[in-house]
Amino acid sequence: MNPQAEDLASPKRRSFLKASLLFISGLISAVIAVPLFGFAVLPALKKAPKKYVVLGIVDLLKGSRYRKVNYTFQSKDGWIQTNRKRSVYVTDSGNGNFVVFSRVCSHLNCLVRWEESKGQFLCPCHGGVFDEEGNVVAGPPPRALEKLSVKVEDGVLYVKEI
Amino acid sequence: MKEKITEFLAERIPIRSIETHVKKPLPKHINWLFSLGAMALFLLILQAATGAFLAIYYSPSPDHAYNSLNYISKEVPFGGFVRGLHHWGASAMVIVVFLHLLRVVVYDSYKAPRELTWIVGVLLLLVVLGFGFTGYLLPWDQKAYWATVVGAKIASTVPIIGDAIGRIMRGGEEVGAVTLTRFYAIHTIWLPWIAFGLVGLHLFLVRHIGSSGLPKNTPKDMDAGKPFYPDQLFEDSVAILILFGVLVVMALFVPVPTEEIADPTDASYDPRPEWYFLFLFQLLKYFEGRFEVVGTFVIPTVAILLLFLVPFLSRKERLPIHKRPVALTVTSISVLSLISLTILGLRSPRLDSTASTASEADQSKVHRSTDTEVFDFGLEEEN
Asked: pTM score, two decimals?
C-alpha cells in the first residue's frame, strides 16, 4: 500500500469504518432476514381449528362392524378451497353409539387395514399390529389407533376432523 | 482464537492475497456516484432473496397465479412487505442501473481498456429489462396480461422471423398457461443464472482493470486513493442503506398496485405497460401504417447496437462530458427523449370511459355467455 493510502487509514478511522460497515450490513441483513423467515415459516406453524364434519347417515351405518367409510369435507389449502378425503373404520356399539377408528398408523402415518379373519388392524409399512380396540399388539407403533370424537345430530353421524 | 482461525484458513486458502486484493487502493479522484454499481449489486441480491421466498407460495398457472399472490399479500405474515420489496426493488433496479450507465458515460469510463466491462454492462441492462418484462406477467392481472399480449406483438413485427419470435415468446398463438410457465421459468431460473454469471464477469473486469475514477486522475493517481476495504465499502454501504431505507418505506406504506384478474374479453380496459417501458409505448404512437416497424424494431435495435459500440466510437483520451460536445449532445438528447416519452406516456389520455365503456362491458358479457367455449380461458376466480 502506498503512503498516502496509509495516511487515510489511521487505525482509529479504520476501526470506526469497519465497525460501521459491520453495523450497517448487520442491520440490513436483519431487516431482510427476519421477515423472510416469518414469511416462509409462520403459515406452516399455524394450526387451523378442528370442526365436526359429516361422516354419514346413521340409518345406513347401523350394525356396522369395522366398516370402511370414506368421506370428504371442504377445507382451505393455501389459496384454494379444496375437498379433503379421509378413510376410517366405523363400528356400531349399540344404543346409537358409534366407534370410529382413524386408519392412520400411530407409527409413521401409513393407512392400516382391518383383517376380519384375525380380528386385527395391520399396518402395511413396518409391521404394526393393533387389536380390535385399536391397542398395539406388535410392531413399532408407540400408541393405540386414534378414536375420533363423534356426535349424532338429526340422524347424521359427525366426526371431528383430524 | 482469532489467530488460530486465521492460521487455519491461511494454510488452506490464499486469504492473505485476498486481503491485499480487497485493500487495493482506488484512484485518487472518485465520488459517491461510484457507489451506483454496488447499489445495483445489492438490489440484485435483494431481488434474488425476496424472489426465492415469493416462489415458496406463488403458483405459475392462470388458475392460481392471481389468487396465490392475493394469498401472499393478505394472509402470509410479512407477505405484503416481501412482495412490496420485490416490486419496488424492481423499479429501483431500473433507475439505479440507468444512473450507473449514465455515470460511466459522463466520466468517459468505457474508454480503453474498459470496453469489455461496458459490453457486459449493456448485456446486464438487457437482462434487467428482461427481468422486468417477464416478472410483471406473473401476477396475471389485467396489466400483466395485456402488456404481454402487446409485448409479444411488438416482437412479431421483426421482419421475416417476427411471427416465429412472437410464437416462441408466447409458447404458441395466445398468451395463456404456456406463456405463464415459460415466463416464470425465464424469470426465476434462466435470467438469475445469466445475471449472476454476467455480474461475476463484470466484477472480475472491474477488479482486474481497476476502477476508472474521474477523468482527471493522472496515471500516478490511479492507485493513490483510499483502499477499497474498508473505506469505499463503507461509503457503498451508506448509499445502500439509504436506498434500502427508501425501499422499506415504500414496501410498508405504498401498496403494490394490483388490478383485476386477467380477462381477455374485457375491452373496457386501457392497457399500459410498467413505467419503465412507457417510453416505448409512447414511441409506438408516432409510427403509423407501414412505418410501424420503425418504432417496434428499427429504433430499439439501432439504439441497442449503438450502445454496444459506444466505447469504440472515439479513440481520444478520457475527458469529462462537458469537454466532449458530440457525446454531450447525443447523451442529452437520448436522456431527454427517454424522460419526455415516459412523461407523455404517463399522461397519455385514456379512452373515454363514461359513455362507451358501459356498452362495451355489456357486450363483452353477452359475448361470454353465448360463446363460452371460445372465450373461456379458464381464468375464473376460485370460489
From this structure: 0.88
Q: Tell whether ipTM is more than 0.90.
A: no
Give the structural domain span for B219. Answer: 26-265
Task: Read off the amino acid at residue B113.
Answer: P
Which of A1, A10, A25, A32 should one mutate to test binding to chain B, selecting the residue with the greatest count of B CBs within 10 A?
A32
Q: Which of A10, A17, A31 to mutate to test the interface with B (most CBs of B within 10 A)?
A: A17
Beta-carbon contacts of residue A137 (< 8 Å; ≥ 6 apart): A120, A129, A130, A131
Q: Rounded distance, CA B327 to CA A60, Å?
A: 88
Compute the nearest-CA separation of A14 from chain B (Å): 7
Among chain B residues, the shortest Cα distance to A78 is held by B71
- B103 backbone φψ class: left, alpha, beta (φ>0; ψ -120 to 50): alpha
The reply to whether B19 falls in a domain is no
Please tell me the CATH superfamily of domain A52-160, with its number. Rieske [2Fe-2S] iron-sulphur domain (2.102.10.10)
Task: Determine, yes or no, domain membership for B295.
Answer: no
The closest of B145, B176, B141, B164 to B378, measured between CA atoms, is B176
**What average pLDDT values come out for chain B (383 residues) when binned by 10 residues?**
91 89 92 97 98 98 97 96 98 98 96 96 98 96 95 94 96 96 98 98 95 93 92 96 98 94 91 94 93 94 96 91 94 96 92 51 44 43 41
DSSP code of residue B175: S
Check: CB of residue A88 under 8 Å from CB of residue A102.
Answer: yes
